[in-house]
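Checklist before submission:
- one chain only
- standard amino acids only
- sequence pasted in full

Submission:
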Amino acid sequence: MGGDLVVAVDLGGTRYRVALIAADGELRARVSGPTPADRGPSAVLTQVHDAVAALVRDAGWEAVAAVSLAVPGPVDPWTGVVRQAPNLPGWFEVDVRGFFAQRVPTRVLVGNDANLAALGEQRFGAGRATRDLIYLTVSTGIGGGVIVDGRLLLGTHGLAGELGHVALDPSGPPCSCGNVGCLERLASGTAIAHRAAMELRAGVAPARLAALASDPDAVRTEDVAAWAAAGEPFARRLIADAATWLGIGVTGFVHIFNPEMVVIGGGVSRIGDLLFDTVRAVVAARAMPAFREGLRIVPAALGDDAGLYGATAAALDHTAG
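Returned file contents:
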């Protein structure tokens, strides 16, 4: 079956990362680069494969137990086919596993990036020693994963855990998934920036901020977070509104899955206490008491490496049978 190293790949719409990780979680080596998304699936996969081959050159393939890839969008984890990757143009029914299986002399596994990030946080990050965990990554969109009794929840077609597309507001904004009022459209970084732009254009925001943001559509979530950190009430309200929706979503997930821990990662989680204090307060006010017992809502510990560690955990599980 090979050695005890895993080649973990985290393929994003903007960048890809490849790491050589040992069974104990030691990261031995890594490479990364920009994803040539505009050149199509074959070019992207070829570039990632070349990075994998370069990384393994010193260790040798005999030391590698598996190549394990975390990819965006709905993916069939049994066949390794990406059904659709919204941030990768032209990615419809792409056989990622087949591509790599023809080119590497070891086992190949493929999983959804947010699902695998959940597994990474549970095995190597904030959720170590927990058996039941919900993970949310709050960034441009909102992804998620659910760990039940130590195992990743996959569902009939391997698509479980699409927590960002749970609809919360029937009169809310339309979502790219075809629904309306999804958590992603209410609480993501994109939602925060969009709300800020709307209020700047409408003249609701203070004049001093309108002067700073001459082009409202260019306002980023990071700008809103910086204004909030400086004590700007307008920005703090926008973040608190998004965090309230996030807390409402978390309350529902807690009632469904009864986890020990909810881990929140992604760029928006770096806002810190303003976000987490609001989420915790909403859950405390809305969740039934029995579901709150022992529940912890915490920041992710692995940052951008969660997908790499989750891909590693999935490979180790598969190797162990």
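Reviewer check: The first strand starts at residue 5 and ends at 11.
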